[in-house]
Amino acid sequence: xxxxxxxxxxxxxxxxxxxxxxxxxxxxxxxxxxxxxxxxxxxxxxxxxxxxxxxxxxxxxxxxxxxxxxxxxxxxxxxxxxxxxxxxxxxxxxxxxxxxxxxxxxxxxxxxxxxxxxxxxxxxxxxxxxxxxxxxxxxxxxxxxxxxxxxxxxxxxxxxxxxxxxxxxxxxxxxxxxxxxxxxxxxxxxxxxxxxxxxxxxxxxxxxxxxxxxxxxxxxxxxxxxxxxxxxxxxxxxxxxx
Length: 242
Ligand code: PXP
Prior knowledge:
The chain is α/β, with parallel strands linked by helices and 242 residues long. The protein has ten helices and eight strands. Bound molecules: pyridoxine-5'-phosphate.
């Protein structure tokens, strides 16, 4: 069995920086720390509304990320053009607008099939792999394969939000079935959204799973795992006087 790899989504570091409009915390520093501590790669989402990650970040990350650089993008012409200039290892196409969504949240591959197929070709011509963020549904997996994309990223959000055991079981089985369909049709399997330190375990059993994209739970936990040292350092400066 291949090792399952972690790409850390560092958008939330940028969210915190944008709250003050300054320079800290610096997502680039965050990327460095993630890679130093075992992350296989870094994921960021350049949103059309530039809510967190900015254009300057996506270009700067290209120079400093040592492992895999996965750039999440929408189907917007402007964003696709930027991604082609950045040249990450992989782009993951995600829905941003309501009309690009299937019922539960993945990309509407059927509706945007031609557009996605053209984008896949343009990215392949530039040596960039393409992943499509989709609902765990074997039919959508097959359509994704037909676009020429290299990977699917299975949307794990509904599984993560499920509260009752029977719902959790139903949703994890949908993930397994979609992953199995992907393996059978010869498209790579990534997964992500909403994964945390407990719900990730069952996802690890998905057939053919290669990469997980996880952001919110890791950045959230780091606030508390890092808070004691941060407070101690400031107390020590204040105590030592001027
Ligand atoms: N995968 C995709 C396609 C996403 O859009 C996101 C969120 O930006 C993630 C994974 C990571 O989700 P989370 O922050 O909930 O771990």
